[in-house]
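Apologies for my clumsy wording, but are you able to produce some protein sequence, whichever is easiest, and the tokens describing how it folds?
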Amino acid sequence: MIEVEGLSRRFGDLYALKDITLRFQGGVLGVLGPNGAGKTTFLRILATVLPPTEGRVRLFGYGTTRASDRRAIRRLLGYLPQAFRAYPDFNAREYLHYVAWLKEMPREGLKERVEELLAWVGLTPVAGRPIRSYSGGMLRRLGIAQALLNDPQLLLVDEPTAGLDVEERVKFRRFLIQLPQERLTVLSTHLVEDVEVVCDQVAVLHRGRLLFFGPKGALLRRFEGKIVEVTVPLKALEELARSPGMRILTVQKEKEGCRVRLLCEQRGGLGGGSPVTPTLQDAYLALIYAHS
């Protein structure tokens, strides 16, 4: 279980996180937010890389203030940071064995586990090449493999599909969906599609504050009847953006103009438009705009 109470993290006078409280027991939690919202800081605190300035964090009953507890937590987690790096002179196979040593994993069955993961992330053909020769996408796949190496009870992944092609992204989402519900996974991403496909619950961060935490359906219900779709000529788009009580969420170009989705706080406020069922992207953007 993840228990976070009154969590704040300050860098000088600037709060990256402010008074975050949540409890998460199983499944996949998607952390959404614009750049600078505090997503990476939140994951680094959960990974025991960064201490909180204020508040309390407990993972599987362990706190994060004592070194012995932090060590116990690290045995239970896998972490893929946003800026993943690996020793460039190692090859992938050597690197995974090195990570296993750092995680104090038993040697029994380790070789098979390494080969299984190399195959799963598609690195077997290049596993003997120096990591310095890898592309960005290949390096990202190695990062995914090292995070999964110890079959962690808590998996923390920060922008895991960055640098992956479409096929690899689909494969990674499929893996997350198939994880046992008793495992905890926290996925930080700017891709709403990742969260929509694989996550059970959503946390939305904005300017260091938690705007929403709960099931995806609860976030969608918050904006039922407030999302409107309308088709307008391209030249009318700027005028529409200035309409009082309206916020443009998405724009899709069509043959004869633009199809626009808007947050409409004034019921019945747009002639020619029609209410639509919110998508997760609609609800997320509407929530951010409402607090901007």
